Amino acid sequence: MARPVTLFTGQWADLTLEELAEKAASWGYDGLELACWGDHFEVDKALKDKGYCKAKRALLEKHGLKVFAISSHLVGQAICDNIDERHKAILPPDVWGDGDPEGVRKRAAQKMIDTGKAAKELGVKVVIGFTGSSIWHMLYSFPPTPPDMIEAGYKDFAERFKSILDAFKDLGIKFALEVHPTEIAFDIASAQRALEALNNHEAFGFNYDPSHLGYQGVDYVKFIRTFPDRIFHAHMKDAWWGHGDGTVGVFGGHTEFADPRRYWDFRSIGHGDTNFEEIIVALNDIGYQGPLSIEWEDSRMDREHGAKEACEYIKKADFKPSQLAFDAAFDK
Predict the structure, then answer these.
(1) What are phi and psi of 15, to 5 degrees?
(2) Which residues does residue 248 pair with via DSSP β-bridges, in sequence order?
(3) Taking the CA of residue 282 as centre, how many other CA atoms within 13 Å lie in the half-sphere pointing to its CB?
(4) How far lies 224's CA from each of 207, 208, 280, 288, 327, in Å?
(5) Do residues 21 and 63 lie in contact, with contact meaning Cβ atoms separated by under 8 Å?
(6) Residues 6+ apart with CB under 8 A from 89
(7) pLDDT in tens, 35-66
(8) Which residues lie below 8 Å from residue 251, measured CB to CB, with a gap of 6+?
(9) What is the 3-class SS of the chain, one letter each residue?
(10) CA atoms in the 13 A half-sphere facing the CB of 91
(11) What Å distances lie between residue 151 and 9, 122, 146, 155, 156, CA to CA?
């Protein structure tokens, strides 16, 4: 096995970490990517209780599991977003506060800095998350959107994240944005622009996830080769596209996941259209040796069956890069 295979716990927050760790170990996982919600990893407790992180590691070790990263998608979403009532459902009460949008954004930014501190206490070097975006609603550019409005969105992102990234740099922690619709970066071009807005800040990079690229028509293998030194973590997640009955397109038609009319949907690994062979080759080519973290989502499948099958699939798909040229023996 070339890399550890872990399970992202975000979609399993209805289970205690103890329950999930036992299951994940039985399915063959090497570790967990801990979500900062549910009881899986609580940032405030990690900073207040000196024994908290030690206890979390002991719990995982009891089941033969490791942890390489923690994830703060929900708090991250509020840092740059245009805040509305939807955010209240995903944010901790202390971040939501009175719901005043600018107050929410500032409290979310401070919580992300605290998350970096908690990551260091736990002994991991990567925090995965979202950024939100003040300009996502301008995606289609109608009414016509002047370029300076888009530029202002990237400037806003850079101003809000600079203090976070400076703090992460001081802590020795990397922030890995999961490139994703509704974020400041959702494809290759916008990811490049996000890096440029930050003057290529060394603490900023990406959590690679092909499932959010393929259905958009973005070359998900080219993404790896475009950002070889900025992929700090990798999600293994599948999707299919070009399906449905032709009544719903890429934008989703305000339908729910698993609606048979949909053009695309998330699928359990091996049941979608993602070519994981090409992904593994590209990750090998850039020298990525971090975990392959399975983010399991499939509305059509029992999740325990899917999580076990996905682990088996990725372990079989992964392989170590060659340590010598295949024709080197001809010289002997």
Answers:
(1) -100, 150
(2) none
(3) 20
(4) 10, 8, 10, 10, 27
(5) yes
(6) none
(7) 999 999 999 999 999 999 999 999 999 999 99
(8) none
(9) CCCCEEEECHHHCCCCHHHHHHHHHHHCCCEEEEECCCCCCCHHHHHHCCCHHHHHHHHHHHCCCECCEEEEHHHHHHHHCCCCHHHHCCCCHHHHCCCCHHHHHHHHHHHHHHHHHHHHHHCCCEEEECCCCCCHHHCCCCCCCCHHHHHHHHHHHHHHHHHHHHHHHHHCCEEEEECCCCCCCCCHHHHHHHHHHCCCCCCEEEEECCHHHHCCCCCHHHHHHHCCCCEEEEEECEEEECCCCCCCCCCCCCCCCCCCCCCEEEECCCCCCCCHHHHHHHHHHHCCCCCEEECCCCCCCCHHHHHHHHHHHHHHHCCCCCCCCCCHHHHC
(10) 30
(11) 35, 37, 9, 6, 9
Question: Which amino acid is present at 308?
Answer: K
Amino acid letter at 171? L
| pTM for this predicted structure | 0.96
Neighbouring residues of 182: CB distance < 8 A, sequence distance ≥ 6: 77, 81, 130, 132, 133, 136
pLDDT tens digits along 215-252: 999 999 999 999 999 999 999 999 999 999 999 999 99
